[in-house]
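Record 1 of the preview.
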Amino acid sequence: GRGFAGNVSFLRVRSSPRQHHTTTLSNTLSMATGARWCWTLILAVSVAAVAWLCTALLQQQQQQQSSSLRGPLPEVAQPKLLAEHSDEFRRELVQVTDGVYSAVGFGVANSVLLVGTDGTVVVDTTETVESAREVKEAFSQVVDFKAKPIRAVIYTHNHVDHTLGIDGLLDLDAPIPDIYGQAQMQKQTNEVAEMSAILYARGMRQLATVLPPELQINVGVGKVYRMTPDTHVSLRMPNYVFENELWVNVSGLNLLLKHSPGETPDQLVVWIPEKRVLIPADNFYKSFPNLYAIRGTSHRDVLTWANSIDAMLQFDIEYLVPCHSRPIVGSAKVRQVLLNYRDAIKFVHDQTVYWTNRGKTPDQIVELVHLPQELAQAPELHEWYGHVAGSVRAIFAGYLGWFDGNPTNLRPLPPSQRAQRFSKLVGGVEKLFNETTAAFEEGDLHWVLELCDLLINNPDVPEKLRQATTDLKAKTLLKLAEHENNAPIRNYYVTFALELLGKLSLDGTPPQQAQPVMRRTATYDVFTCICTNLNAKRSMNVWSTALFVFPDRNEAVKLELRGGVAYHHMAPTDSGDPSNADVGVAVSIDYEQFVDLTLKLQSPAKLYALGKMKILNGTVLGLATFTSYFDNVATGVNPE
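->
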């Protein structure tokens, strides 16, 4: 992602060192294509030995995932304004107008029901099958689905909180309804597979998903992200896609689906002219927009986002039905909030570019760009979710990349050397720790975080002092969280603090959640991720090729190791012929079984013994050797 490197010390950074330093799937629907290569388990000639080892590792993984939280947990006071903001997400089926209902508070995102003459349309499906079932139960209070079944589902974009609940809404014994999405949705779903592990960890921090209920408040645009180890997800890709716009008529409902890139490149808005209803996807919600997500995201085209909102203003809207937060009613009010939203985005963009062109660095621009008072006081622009400072940094990086223009930063000292020299400058690590403790007592908390990092990064710090510093950093984060009204930052502080204290570990998405998404990910993109897990040091002198044939997809992938580099190509499915000297080892396996192997839902020894995984060329030991050059990574579904 651009703008935030993951260090909590830089979430609220100010420019003066001693004076309080201040700072979709495009990206989401991503999941566990981090591909835990279970094939590395095939290290024994004996099938029985391999089976025993697979079973032991599977049990260990399940134990780890069922014991993430370790108590007792600290008490953390809730910031008053953020706690009050939770009322925006109180659970309710809101009737917007005749035949239009918004299910608010059932998941992080809303699900919208459109009732036609002989059927219904659902826009977005929430994040889990369980929450979607509760949505359907609420919808059933106002419509008889036997008389008016779901004829179509519309995804506003690829983020998982809008797509992964679909099977909870459908009658799976009946024909699957048409599913609509913008043409880039599949690409966005596959695109960030190689970053899924870190996006999962950072996403869980941003959304507080792994926190116990007593430490959760809300996520800024929803109450609780309900994806937990006990919930289930589903994914069905659209069978109807379009580029710019598409008029459809479903059960007498005349709908315009219009491409409206913003938070993600595949956003679409839904316009219902006869009812004067606009569903704006995630291009509008009641918060300053998330122009950059601290979980990590590729560059969001902020100027295009503003232009998409400007295009919405061309509709004669009476009812604005966001996919996060409550509906807004009244043409004058709708127009004003959209104007405010457009102008706020445009202001932050233009002023960041203005100061960038005058040679300012991101740290300096953050101090210069603040919303005009009229916009800053607008309720829909409070920084519950996005924040201006983080947006400034992301816009700068989106245009100019990582280098801020200061030549000092072209060849910076490594963090360890900088930490050592700073400690020496102030008289040693003990004195620096005492200064850090004093700053904490004075309430200079952002400065405490920076000093803690200097101690933690210093290899000369004794282990006992390092642990004391780590505990102080965690204590500081919890203290900051008590006064932080930006939900993602507050949640990141609390979750990271619990990790530092050893109370919490992020073990990766439960396999049953990753499985349905991974099964619908393009084969090529899965192997893109596998390549990023190559241990370059271990494979530096290795030149070898393996072929993986997937009969059910009529696909094959050739994976080459070339002296520390992994490269893959789609290959002819018959290239696993034993006469093919170019391939050292070849395996045939159905893609769904391959997914289950990577997620440790199946034992490779069992599949091999049952003939569901066949060695076409080479040996089992050869396969084990080849795959041993790849490290394991934690699997993860990318959240909103």
